[in-house]
Predict the 3D structure of the following.
Amino acid sequence: MSERWTPRRTLAALTAVFAIGVALRALPLWQSPLPFNPDGLVHARNAHRTVRTGRFPLSIMATDDLGFGALLAVAQSVTGVRSVALGQPLIAAIGTVPALVAGALAARTSRQLGLAPGRARFAGLLATLLLAVEGIYLYRSMPVDEQTPGLSLLAIAVVAVVAALWSDDRRWFLVALPALLVIPPLHNLEGFVLGLTLLVLAGLAALPWTRSRARAPAALALAVGFWAYFAAYNVGLARLTPARIIQTGRLTAAPGLLVAWLILCLAVVALVSRSRPRSQRALLAVPFLALFALLAVNAVSPVFPGTPATARGTLLPALPLLVPILAAVWAYPFLRRAPEANVATVALTVGPLALVGFALSAALTPAYLDTAVRTHWFLHLPVLALAAVGCAVAFRSVVPDRQQVRTLVVCALVVTVAVSIPVAFAGLSLHPYKGVTTTGEFAASTFAHEHIDGSWTSDNHLVRITNYHSTDISGTETTLYDWITNPDAPPPNCPVVTKESWVTVGAQFFPRPPAMVASDRFRSLHHRAHRVYHGGSTQTLTVLAPRRMSTSQC
């Protein structure tokens, strides 16, 4: 194996894997040229107005929209292509970068463990492939959204900070500094997770098993400095401009609980560091098995009231991910021989885990469920990187001379993460939130926004995408939801934008579960109204106006 993975072959293989990752994240373009997620339309709107006017439209932006808005605006200015069309191809490449970061982390860890250069390159290539094709991670790394570039920037910042503090090569700060500066304007969640992770690093630097306590003050100063910058940026921009801070209440509502989770995680890390390998593996498996158990329980009954239950089509493809997780858990005790890699992997895992634990225990509301789900994506990179390292270590110590066994193991590991690829493109059949916006949906919502006087009603998706045109949205989902969920309710007494998929997969009412319309009620709604618009691309969309519409609004 060491002789097979020469630098040239490894580079060629990495290029092929990166191309596969980009192709997977560009697949939504086969369904629609628009951004994969409706929020991407909002970012495209902000970027287009920025290019057109020469200034950010801060009155309709959040403080953490500036980073991603600037990226899209620069890309539009350089290419001449509007952000609404450029966003998905651009994010297909950006969303694959975390796979390269995972590969670099796995290769660097393998070298620190004393593996041969060829074997270390194999570990890096395997980690890149695993993260590039993992379907659950794919679902989060292809939206035109701020978190997509943040997934790699956070990992780069943490790995570079660890390298600077634990290897005494201060040049690594030059790598970490751009990411540390960019993340607060990019996304609040990334900033919060990075702040927690830096505090974890400060705690790790103070533990006895680190090589020197001299780096603990530097790690603590860096964590405090980042939190100060993070707060100053958001509060300062909100006070000096019309930009607003969003979604902070859920994270600041119970600071004591968050600190408690952070302390608990650090205490568990300290306990793990003093345990035997078997105990280490048992302790590390607990939080991951707990998350899978929670996912299974949610398939029976929603843990968070009012939110969708886990679909069987999501649960079954997710279960094979236990294989790379257990491989990573098995490999962790070997990191004791590589302090720097140990610290980087632990920090990248413990920081997000603390926030996930906080979100799951703070309150059973959709907002905290959203926080837990969006935070757990940060765990995929370190876990799959460590799984690849474990595979390389096992090949050296367990099956050193069995090529067929090693090939089967690699294929099985790749299949366990790739089997969930269809989940990323399933839409409302599995997810409460529809990612793809077709040109027909965009045209119908545009017609309603521009030609209907007064309010109108539709599902969450069609109302949401009108944000591309204006923040003054006249559409509402409440009237339609009341009619769909109440069989005795009369039809909406205002214009309705309908989709034929409402009778099959249902209408979107995120974060509530999709709601299906009975076929007879859907036909009756059409028969009792005037059809003022009829179109669509992959499905039929219609704008209906009641035959006798009162002066009351939706």
